C-alpha cells in the first residue's frame, strides 16, 4: 500500500482548558496510528471568547455543576489525572492563561521541539497538581520538568514579551477564529476537499470518519472498548 | 456476570432538539443490548433553558454556523436522515415545540405504547421532511403515521389542552431541572447510589461505562437496522 501524503491536522489549544488536554493527549497517542501531520497551535482562548461573544460554560450555574462531574468522568475515560480546581474563578478567569500561552508561543518560535512537553507540564500544573501557571518561576519550572536546558528556558522566557511573540499569539488566535472557532479545543482537518473544523474532545469518531481512519477509543494501543 | 436488575435510564427530550433525536434513536437501538429500563420523558426545552438561564447555542453566531456542519456529520454517523431547517428562528423559536410536547405527554398518558413512535414521527416532520409540528392537523398526521387509532388520536388531541396534561409536562420539565438539566437531551442513569446526569448525544461511551455495558457505536445491530 503506497504511502499517501499525511493529512494536516491543526490543533488549537490553550492550557486553561481541561477538555483541550484530553484532546491533546489523544491526538499525540494517535500519531503512530493515523496518517496525519499534527501541527500544534498555541492560542489564547480568552481572545477567542471575546471576539466571538461566547462565554465559558460555568457562567450557567447548572452547567458549572455538571462540568465538575463530566470532567472527572472524562478524565477516567481518557486516563488523565485531573484534579478539580478549588477556586476556578480566580485561577481560570482572574489569573488566566495569557502568560502561559505567550511562553508557549515563544517556545514554538524559538525551540519548537519542546512545545509538546512544556504544554503537557503546564497542563499538569494547573489541572493535575493545582499549581500556578502565571509566575516566572512556574513557567520555568514547567520547562525544566520538560527537560529544556537552562539557556533555552532563559531565551524563550525573555522573548515571550517581544512584539514578535505577542503578534504570533494574536495571529494564531485570529486564524482559529477565521476557521470558525468559538472555544477550545479546536481541531482543523485539512482534507483534499477542504478544511473541516471540529470543536471539543468528543468528536473523535467523526474526525476519524472524515480522515478515513479507525477510532479505537482513547487508548489505541490497548485492546480496549470504545 | 449476572445482574438481575435492569438499570433505570430516563431520557428527557424535546422534539425541537435534533441532538435529542440522535440520543433517542441510539438508546432505542440499545434496548436489546443493554440491561436497562428506558423511560421516555417528554419535557419542554424552552422551560429548561429559561429556568437554567441558558440560551440555545445558535445565539453565538459562530456556534450556529458550526452546528450546521456538526448536525450533518452526526446525522451521517448515527444514520438519521436529518435535513437542516431553512428558517430555524421561525421554526424553533417562534413556532417552537410546546404543542408537540403537550401532545406527546397526552399520548404518554393515554397510550404510552405509542410515545416512541409518535415522538419519532414528530422528529421526522421537523428535522427530516421540514414539516410543521404545531398545527392540530400536523400532530394528527404524525400520530397516524405511528399507527395510532383515529379515536385515540382525537382523544389525545383533546386531552393535550387539559390542565392535568399541561401540569404533567411542567412536572416532567421540573424533574429534569431538579436533576441538574440545562438542555436536551438529558439522560439520567439510576445506578449504584445516586442518579447520574449526562447531557448531549456524545457521552455514550461514558454512559456505557456507568452501566457496565459496552458501547459499540451508534449502530450496534447493523443487520436489524
UniProtKB/TrEMBL annotation, chain A:
GO BP, sorted A to Z: glutathione metabolic process
Catalytic reaction(s) noted: RX + glutathione = an S-substituted glutathione + a halide anion + H(+)
Limits of the DSBA-like thioredoxin domain: 9-211
Alphabetized UniProt keyword annotations: Transferase
InterPro entries: DSBA-like_thioredoxin_dom (IPR001853), GST_Kappa/NadH (IPR051924), HCCAis_GSTk (IPR014440), Thioredoxin-like_sf (IPR036249)
UniProt keyword Transferase present: yes
One cellular component (GO) term of this entry: mitochondrion
Enzyme Commission code(s) on record: 2.5.1.18
Catalytic residues in the record: 17 (nucleophile)
Family statement drawn from the similarity comment of this UniProt entry: Belongs to the GST superfamily. Kappa family.
Protein name, UniProt field: Glutathione S-transferase kappa
Species name: Daphnia galeata
UniProtKB/TrEMBL annotation, chain B:
Catalyzed reaction equations: RX + glutathione = an S-substituted glutathione + a halide anion + H(+)
Gene3D superfamilies: Glutaredoxin (3.40.30.10)
Domain of life: Eukaryota
GO function terms (MF aspect): glutathione peroxidase activity; glutathione transferase activity
Domain (DSBA-like thioredoxin): residue spans on this chain: 9-211
Class in the EC hierarchy, top level: transferase
GO-annotated biological processes: glutathione metabolic process
Keyword Transferase: yes
Protein EC: 2.5.1.18
PANTHER family, per the entry: GLUTATHIONE S-TRANSFERASE KAPPA (PTHR42943), GLUTATHIONE S-TRANSFERASE KAPPA 1 (PTHR42943:SF2)
Stated name of the protein: Glutathione S-transferase kappa
Amino acid at each position: 500500500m503506497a504511502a499517501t501524503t499525511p493529512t494536516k491536522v491543526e490543533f488549537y489549544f490553550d492550557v486553561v482548558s481541561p477538555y483541550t488536554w484530553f484532546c491533546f493527549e489523544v491526538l499525540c497517542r494517535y500519531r503512530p496510528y493515523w496518517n496525519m501531520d499534527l501541527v500544534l497551535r498555541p492560542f489564547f482562548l480568552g481572545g477567542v471568547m471575546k471576539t466571538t461573544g461566547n462565554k465559558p460554560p460555568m457562567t450557567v450555574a447548572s452547567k458549572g455543576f455538571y462540568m465538575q462531574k463530566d470532567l472527572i468522568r472524562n478524565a477516567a475515560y481518557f486516563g488523565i489525572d485531573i484534579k478539580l480546581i478549588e477556586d476556578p474563578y480566580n485561577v481560570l478567569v482572574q489569573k488566566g492563561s495569557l502568560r502561559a500561552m505567550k511562553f508557549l508561543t515563544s517556545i514554538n518560535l524559538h525551540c519548537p521541539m519542546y512545545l509538546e512537553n512544556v504544554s503537557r507540564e503546564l497542563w499538569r500544573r494547573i489541572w493535575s497538581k493545582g499549581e500556578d501557571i502565571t509566575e516566572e518561576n512556574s513557567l520555568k519550572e514547567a520547562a525544566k520538568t520538560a527537560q529544556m536546558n537552562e539557556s533555552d528556558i532563559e531565551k524563550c522566557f525573555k522573548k515571550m514579551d517581544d512584539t514578535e511573540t505577542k503578534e504570533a499569539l494574536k495571529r494564531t488566535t485570529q486564524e482559529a477564529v477565521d476557521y470558525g472557532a468559538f472555544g477550545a479545543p479546536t481541531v482543523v482537518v485539512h482534507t483534499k476537499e477542504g478544511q473541516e473544523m471540529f470543536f471539543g474532545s468528543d468528536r473523535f469518531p467523526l474526525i476519524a470518519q472524515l480522515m478515513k481512519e479507525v477510532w479505537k477509543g482513547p487508548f489505541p494501543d490497548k485492546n480496549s472498548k470504545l | 456476570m449476572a445482574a438481575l436488575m435492569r438499570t433505570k435510564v430516563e431520557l428527557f427530550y424535546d422534539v425541537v432538539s435534533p441532538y435529542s433525536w440522535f440520543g433517542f434513536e441510539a438508546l432505542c437501538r440499545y434496548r436489546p443490548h443493554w440491561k436497562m429500563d428506558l423511560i421516555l420523558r417528554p419535557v419542554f426545552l424552552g422551560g429548561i433553558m429559561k429556568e437554567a438561564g441558558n440560551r440555545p447555542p445558535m445565539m453565538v453566531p459562530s456556534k450556529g454556523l458550526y452546528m450546521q456542519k456538526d448536525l450533518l456529520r452526526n446525522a451521517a454517523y448515527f444514520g438519521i436522515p436529518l435535513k437542516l431547517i431553512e428558517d430555524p428562528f421561525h421554526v424553533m423559536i417562534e413556532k417552537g415545540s410546546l404543542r408537540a410536547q403537550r401532545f406527546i405527554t397526552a399520548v404518554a398518558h393515554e397510550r404510552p405504547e405509542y410515545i416512541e413512535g409518535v415522538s419519532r414521527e414528530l422528529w421526522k416532520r421537523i428535522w427530516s421532511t421540514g414539516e410543521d409540528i404545531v398545527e392540530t392537523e400536523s400532530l394528527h398526521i404524525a400520530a397516524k403515521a405511528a399507527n395510532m387509532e383515529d379515536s385515540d388520536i382525537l382523544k389525545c388531541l383533546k386531552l393535550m389542552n387539559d390542565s392535568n396534561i399541561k401540569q404533567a409536562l411542567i412536572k416532567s420539565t421540573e424533574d429534569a431541572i431538579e436533576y441538574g438539566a440545562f438542555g436536551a437531551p438529558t439522560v439520567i442513569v439510576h445506578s449504584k447510589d445516586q442518579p447520574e446526569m449526562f447531557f448531549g448525544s456524545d457521552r455514550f461511551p461514558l454512559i456505557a461505562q456507568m452501566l457496565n455495558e459496552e458501547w459499540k457505536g451508534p449502530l450496534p445491530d447493523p443487520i436489524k437496522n
